[in-house]
Design goal:
Length: 259
Amino acid sequence: ALPLDWMRTLRITTDIDKFVVTMWSPPAWMKANRTLTSFYEAYNNKLEPRYYEEYAEHLVALVKTVREKTGIDLYAVSLQNEPQFNEPYASCVVGPEEYRDLLRVVGPRFRAEGLSTRFFLPEALPQQKAIDRYIRTIAADPVASQYLDIVAIHNYDADGIKVGGPGAAEWAAMYGWAQENRSTKTWMSETSGHADDWTGAETLAGNIYNALHAGNASAWIFWSFNVTPDAAPYGLLNNGTETARYAVSKQFYRFIRPG
């Protein structure tokens, strides 16, 4: 559920024209473990196939609610954040074949509802070595492939915490996989954890450059814009004060315009 205060904030945000949403978990009652936070129930942290239609309805309602409350049409949604992880926070494991089957249900439901919202996926980590499986499994299906709009990855190491991220060769490979079926955008849809100093900022600059130059990425999304000092590595601003990460990011965000 989206807080109404957040929705009201969107009403006054006029300079941003693309909003995206990532799902961290289906509702607990749709899952085999009947819980959102599933670290200790890892063996069945799954969306049950019998609820795929219900999950599609849940996502349709989300998009329509945002439109109703804010007047904004969501540009894209992700069906599952980091689908290879069991986490102590809300999570759900969705393998390549399961993602394909889910997209076969959600995609047609969106179109039947007249929604133009795109799908970005799989939001997995390249170091988990399954990005190609997600892309190719979906691309091989005549129905699911129609909704393979954006290939998105997260810029972390295999543990999902440390900043590792793909290098230039890995980005080039992912871009190649994304183009095998049809022309598909590439995104980096979450990163954080870079040290709160110029060394961390330089690492971030290299990460962004690899994505743009080798991966032809058209979106780079940092985890949080403004954070408190205790969470400094996760934001670009620290209590409203610009960080080195902010300065580096701004060079890309401000001077590389859409298109």
